[in-house]
Amino acid sequence: MIKLLECTIAARWRGLLPVPAIACAALGLLGAAPARADPNDYVLTLDITGGEREIEAKLGAASSSRDGTPAGEAAALSWGIGVTDRWFTEFYAQLANTSAGSTGGGLDSTSWENVVRFSEPGQWPIDVGAMLEIERPRAGSQGWKITSGPLFQADVDQVQLNLNILFERVVDGQPFEPTQLSYQFQARFRSDPRLEFGMQALGDLGSWNHWGSPDGQAQRLGPAIFGRYSLGHARAISYNAALLFGANRAAADTTVRAQIEYEY
């Protein structure tokens, strides 16, 4: 399956652009620990501007779920840069995480995340990219978490659509568990850039080659707001926030999440 994916991508994009090596790595890392959703999980997009720097906060709080998973909250601080118009890289620290599987308060983990877009915006009906994140939890027994997968973005009239398929694997962790599959979906209705409306959906489906039962999949969806305020001199503040409701027993009944970034 991995070879087929590599060959398909290579044939599709050969000669169009020099894809950074990290994109190839992101697409090749399909292959063993459960994705533990954090309340501050967010939807990745392919909006990349070369040279733009970002300082960002990601916040979230979730109630308990009907299957007994306790309530939790999480926060993260990050710094990122658009290395080129097609490659964004970001370093962040996850803080005060009291979600299931975390180490409790304080510094929970550190991560390096990369997003690569394979084409210019609008060059194809659907923009295609990939992501790779390497996360080191504070608890050494949790190993290294590697998340990767394809990203898709399209504009249909005034609506921007995003769909991301993500695979999470734990390396050198105990106990061993198979690669997990999750998805992110977002619809954003373009109007006044200072305040726009839409919806978001996040789901953890279980093992990538053997999905869990409907009640065992943690799926959350609900309304979202987006906005961007220009501060002049290539500076701006962007935000998005969502109120997500659990669609089954394994998902938190209610999740509130927000993402605020300062661009300069």
Describe the structure in your own words.
This protein is mostly beta strands and 264 residues long. A hairpin with a 6-residue loop joins strand 5 and strand 6. It is globular, with a radius of gyration of 18 Å. 35% of the residues are buried. Strands 1-2-3-4-5-6-7-8-9-11-12-13 form a twelve-stranded antiparallel barrel. It has one domain: monomeric porin ompg (Porin), CATH 2.40.160.40. The N and C termini lie far apart (41 Å). The protein contains two helices and 13 strands.
Give the secondary structure arrangement, pairings included.
Blueprint: H1 2-13, H2 21-28, E1 53-62, E2 72-84, E3 87-97, E4 104-117, E5 127-137, E6 144-156, E7 159-171, E8 180-192, E9 195-207, E10 210-211, E11 218-232, E12 235-246, E13 254-263
Antiparallel strand pairs: 1-2, 1-13, 2-3, 3-4, 4-5, 5-6, 6-7, 7-8, 8-9, 9-10, 9-11, 11-12, 12-13
The CATH architecture comes to: Beta Barrel
Global geometry: globular
**Beta-strand fraction estimate:** over 45%
Q: Which range best describes the helical content: under 10%, 10-25%, 25-40%, 40-55%, 55-70% or over 70%?
A: under 10%
Strand order of the largest sheet: 1-2-3-4-5-6-7-8-9-11-12-13
N- to C-terminal distance: 41 Å
Sheet/helix structural class: mainly beta
**What's the domain count?**
1
Mean pLDDT score, rounded? 85
Compact summary:
The chain has helices spanning 2-13, 21-28, and strands at residues 53-62, 72-84, 87-97, 104-117, 127-137, 144-156, 159-171, 180-192, 195-207, 210-211, 218-232, 235-246, 254-263.
